[in-house]
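For the sake of transparency, this paper describes our internal protein records without simplification. Because each token names a local backbone shape, the row as a whole describes the fold. One such record is reproduced below, unchanged from the form in which we store it.
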Amino acid sequence: MENYFYDFNELSGKLHIWNKKTNDMGQKICFRDSVKWIRVDEFGSYFYKENLDEYSPFHKVNLFKKGSRVIRKEDNITLRRITEKKGGLTAEKLSNLREQLKFVKNEYKWFYEKFFEENEENPKKKRKAIGSF
């Protein structure tokens, strides 16, 4: 199932963008406390307001790293597929899913059966709850 997922950790580097903490005028951006309105007109930048007044100006934030070239539509960016197995299900959860399989449509059962085969050999160990008595 892992091969259905992509690693997005590399995407910002490939797009040459980063999460800036200041706008183009050097003022700090406080998303949680002050940003009320966001407008995106082009890739790589956005505008924001700290109030809902339609006459107050937007502040611009450029997301591109300084000195980096702008990504074009012709540029081909590929993401790496995740191949390593992470997590897993406990034997108890696997048995519960088997019981629920009778409610799954026949066209989707192949996915669960494949999942059971992959996780049959090495189910995850159930952890003890912290603070339980």
Observations:
- The mean pLDDT is 82.
- The two ends are 36 Å apart (CA to CA).
- The chain is about 25% helix and 10% strand.
